[in-house]
Structures are given as structure tokens and as C-alpha cells.
Amino acid sequence: MKDWKQVTVYTDGACRGNPGRGGYGVVLKYGRHRKELSAGFRRTTNNRMELLAAVVALESLKEPCAVTLYSDSRYLVNAVTRHWLQFWQRNGWKKADKQPVVNVDLWQRYLAAAAPHRLELLWLKGHAGQLENTRCDQLATRAADGGEWNEDDGFSG
User: Fold this and answer.
1) Which of the following is catalytic: 22, 50, 117, 152?
2) What's the CA gap between 114 and 29, in Å, rounded?
3) Does residue 152 carry a catalytic annotation?
4) Do the domain assignments include residue 101?
5) Owning domain of residue 140
6) Rounded distance, CA 68 to CA 89, Å?
7) Which of 44, 90, 118, 132 is the most exposed place for a label (fewest CB within 10 A)?
8) What 8-state DSSP symbol labels residue 99?
9) Predicted confidence (pLDDT) per residue in 52-103, tens digit
10) What digits encode the pLDDT tens for the residues 100-115?
11) For the CA atoms of 140, 142, 148, 151, what is the dihedral angle to 10 degrees?
């Protein structure tokens, strides 16, 4: 049986306007190691930044790991834990009301990034004083406000 590295991840997204300037923040922890990631985007949405934070965190892992990922995004956590994501994928990226799923580009990246890992996705209340969530919020808002913005090529709106 594989001896999986235990990695804890915290993520957050921020947006100034929705849509507007946005950013994400990530804190990864493995043993005594810690890594922070963030980036800002010229025009995006809060949900895209919440989802992109999780994608970037998982894509940054260099080998399969046992990951506990904490997010304050119900959009992200519910889509995965309530199996909406599986339903959308099976139904050609259409929701139950037959409308197209938004952010398909990021959901597809999420699925690919999550595949090699044993992943537990947990919701935590944002802005409630949890140290790492607060740090992620700082990283995300700093990136959104920073002036060095990327283009969110998947955003249309």
C-alpha cells in the first residue's frame, strides 16, 4: 500500500466587483514545510477565483498526495461533495435546468488536478478568525489590488 504524503491546503478567492479585478490565495502545508501562492487577474469573478485557487494548489503538487483542502467557498465545496460536478460532467456540462455550467474550463482543470490525489474537501466559515483562511484572504485581496494582473482567458463576460 502506498504511503501517501499528508498535505493540508487552504484556499480563498477575492474579487473587486463581480465581475471585476480578482485574485486567489493558497497556503499549502506539509510537515514543517509551507508554501504560499497567489496571483491577480484584470477581470474575473469571485467563483472563478475560489475555484482557481483550488486548481492551482492541486496542480502545484509534484506527486500524488493525501490532501485535505479547506475552502470557504460553498460553490466549490458543494459542487464536489454533493456530486454536482459528476452530474454536470455526465450531462455534457449542463445543469439540471439544462442551462450550461459556468466555469467549465476550470472545472475540467480541477478534475484533472484532483485525479492523482486522495482528496478530502472541507468547507470552513470565511472571515471567522481561522489563521490560514485569513492568510489566504490577505493573499487573494493583495493580488486583486496589486496592479500586476493576468488575463483570465476563460472568463467571458
Assistant:
1) 50
2) 17
3) no
4) yes
5) 5-150
6) 23
7) 90
8) P
9) 999 999 999 999 999 999 999 999 999 999 999 999 999 999 999 999 999 9
10) 999 999 999 999 999 9
11) 20
